[in-house]
Design brief:
The protein is an alpha+beta fold. The chain is 11% helix and 24% strand. It has a 6-stranded antiparallel β-sheet, with no helix packed on it. A hairpin with a 7-residue loop joins strand 3 and strand 4. The C terminus is likely disordered.
């Protein structure tokens, strides 16, 4: 089952995600509160590349982002507001040049917009807390994932918070 009912691109899908104002964001550091800032505030807080992707729905070049081939355990947060969006447990190698996940941490942490720019029919993924552009979600591409979906996310849109290193006892270290 896709996020939009029977088909992620279906015109008559029975379920349409709630608009940003009604979304129920989770996410660490935000306590479920919406983050709203002026354009000038975003420009001051984000690097030019972060601003172009997060606030203007840009896309970083493939194979250039920090996390496209990362296998480190942890939680991926929105780079703009810190909301928890994805985990390394759902990350997989799609070989597309961007970090790929088969599901978000929780559906309420992201929202979806039909994107018809560039002559394509896509589904944009945004942070439900601050409405920043993250990337796009695709389905039916044949990846062997539980959802048959690929959340293709810009590295510049997220920040990895690594899991704490497990404590290693002296006897384990000697083995």
């Amino acid at each position: 089952m896709s996020i939009f009912g029977n088909s992620i691109f279906g015109q008559n899908a029975p379920h349409t995600p709630a608009p940003a104002q009604e979304a129920a964001p989770g996410g660490a550091g935000t306590a479920g509160k919406r983050v709203e800032k002026t354009d000038e505030q975003w420009r001051q807080e984000l690097t030019p590349e972060e601003y172009q992707v997060l606030r203007q729905a840009g896309t970083e070049r493939p194979y250039t982002g920090e996390y496209w081939d990362t296998h480190t355990a942890g939680v991926y947060q929105c780079r703009a507001c810190g909301a928890e969006l994805f985990t390394s447990n759902e990350k997989f190698d799609s070989h597309c040049g961007w970090p790929s996940f088969w599901a978000p941490l929780a559906e309420g942490n992201v929202r979806y917009i039909h994107d018809r720019t560039l002559g394509m029919e896509r589904v944009e993924v945004r942070c439900a807390t601050c409405d920043s552009h993250l990337g796009h979600v695709f389905e039916g591409e044949g990846y062997g994932t539980p959802t048959d979906q690929r959340y293709c996310i810009n590295s510049v849109s997220i920040r990895l918070v690594q899991d704490e290193d497990p404590q290693v006892s002296a006897t384990q270290a000697e083995d």
